[in-house]
């Protein structure tokens, strides 16, 4: 009965319709909304993490007697199963999973897995059937048996993950690898609601407690994680191999969403009539939309005829900006905000816009940069380390300061563009998802680690020897 009740509550808390209703009710009260998020997180934390350790320990005490021909590569998609938004991390998870299922590494059987409401790790066979376009059968999803040499790889982000499950399986020889896309929730917590800060801090601590190694989506993030651990020596008490890989740029390989007939006709027509700056990503403080809008408004005031097109749903702490965008006098004239654009429309806008404006203050990678470059769309990016790593000399960088400096940089870029001197992106090195997956496997399976975090005690021991 408890399991049924928990399942029902969990279903309500992650139901998109319930979430949308709650957000609409709380939108006029930003402080109350943030407080509600904190209480919901704490409720989930202490309810869904209620200890099933003894039950799980009993179920994994006896190792399976049948030794399989191949080791398992278990790809955790727990967050994706709960809610697939088709963008960001979920696009990465889907793309990697598809590549691994279609092209499993030699000697491994690839299996998608997820944790259920009791914390049990199960095979995600129904979801795999849907992803692979196979018939939707009433498939069983039994608990996952663990053999020594199996690898658990989590490319997903489920903030209330039951790490105790993995700790028990680890004793049976499971090797655990997590993906860390960024640590902005630790290093720039002011950019997030308090609930996310709490949840991400707990998630990161859980990863540090069980992971045998981690992979990041950029060298910049790998460096940030190592530096953060060195500044917080109690967070990890044993060495941690850290690798990184870059993401894929071919949206078409990630089962892109399709829109309705005529979707985006108005904005596509506007792209034909005047130069267009395209911003891609959830509207939230760290993405820099407010500063970008202020800069573009400055250009409009000077008579510069350009469009600003924003692709991305409304995120947290954006009530004022969302109201400003929806009520803006240039809305659907020179300012367009598409909250539910399909991947098909996004690819059209990459092809027909004048430049991508990447204004994020902090990122783990920056998928829009490589997706834009694949379409040959010029890139105007904030001067932050990860954008230099991803785009190199194939982007125009603006100072990480204020809207006045951004407006000046945009004027400079348009002058360069008119003279044919703006940095082109077409020759920027990018990977397909197939190549990205192979780069990932080289790190995990061939131990091609970029660096290793050594706790102070380990460093002192090594030095003494």
From TrEMBL:
CDD domains: GT4_MtfB-like (cd03809). GO terms for molecular function: glycosyltransferase activity. SUPFAM superfamilies: UDP-Glycosyltransferase/glycogen phosphorylase. Gene3D superfamilies: Glycogen Phosphorylase B (3.40.50.2000). Keywords: Transferase. Residues 273-415 form the Glycosyl transferase family domain. Pfam families: Glycos_transf_1. InterPro entries: Glyco_trans_1. This is Glycosyl transferase, group 1. The lineage of its organism: unclassified sequences, metagenomes, ecological metagenomes.
């Amino acid at each position: 009965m408890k399991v049924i009740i928990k399942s029902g509550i969990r279903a309500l808390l992650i139901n998109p319709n319930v979430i949308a209703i709650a957000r609409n009710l709380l939108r006029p009260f930003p402080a109350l909304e943030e407080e509600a998020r904190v209480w919901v997180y704490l409720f989930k934390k202490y309810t869904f993490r209620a200890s099933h350790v003894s039950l799980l320990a009993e179920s994994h005490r006896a190792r399976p007697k049948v030794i399989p021909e191949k080791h398992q590569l278990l790809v955790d998609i727990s967050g994706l199963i709960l809610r697939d938004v088709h963008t960001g991390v979920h696009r990465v998870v889907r793309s990697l999973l598809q590549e691994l299922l279609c092209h499993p590494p030699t000697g491994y059987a690839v299996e998608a897995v997820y944790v259920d409401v009791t914390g049990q790790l199960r095979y995600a066979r129904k979801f795999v059937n849907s992803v692979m376009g196979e018939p939707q059968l009433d498939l069983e999803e039994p608990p996952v048996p663990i053999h020594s040499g199996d690898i658990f790889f989590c490319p997903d982000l489920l903030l209330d993950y039951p790490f105790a499950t993995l700790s028990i399986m680890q004793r049976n020889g499971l090797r655990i690898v997590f993906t860390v896309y960024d640590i902005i929730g630790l290093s720039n917590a002011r950019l997030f609601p308090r609930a996310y800060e709490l949840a991400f801090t707990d998630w990161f601590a859980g990863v540090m407690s069980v992971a045998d190694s981690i992979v990041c989506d950029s060298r910049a993030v790998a460096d940030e994680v190592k530096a953060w651990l060195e500044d917080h020596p109690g967070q990890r008490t044993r060495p941690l191999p850290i690798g990184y890989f870059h993401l894929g740029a071919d949206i078409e390989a990630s089962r892109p969403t399709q829109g309705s007939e005529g979707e985006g006709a108005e904005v596509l027509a506007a792209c034909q009539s005047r130069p267009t700056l395209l911003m891609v990503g959830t509207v939230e403080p760290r993405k820099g939309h407010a500063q970008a809008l202020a800069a573009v408004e400055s250009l409009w005031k000077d008579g510069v005829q350009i469009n600003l097109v924003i692709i991305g749903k409304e995120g947290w702490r954006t009530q004022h900006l969302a109201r400003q965008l929806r009520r803006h006098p240039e809305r659907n004239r020179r300012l367009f905000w598409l909250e539910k654009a399909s991947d098909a429309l996004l690819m059209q806008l990459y092809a027909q816009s004048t430049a991508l404006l990447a204004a994020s203050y902090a990122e783990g990678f920056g998928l829009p940069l490589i997706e834009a470059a694949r379409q040959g769309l010029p890139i105007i990016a904030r001067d932050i380390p990860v954008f230099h790593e991803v785009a190199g000399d194939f982007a125009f960088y603006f100072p990480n300061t204020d809207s006045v400096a951004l407006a000046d940089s945009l004027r400079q870029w348009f002058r360069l563009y008119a003279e044919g001197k703006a940095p082109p992106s077409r020759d920027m090195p990018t990977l397909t998802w197939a190549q990205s997956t192979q780069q990932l496997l080289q790190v995990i399976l061939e131990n091609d680690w970029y660096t290793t975090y050594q706790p102070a005690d380990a460093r002192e021991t090594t030095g003494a020897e």
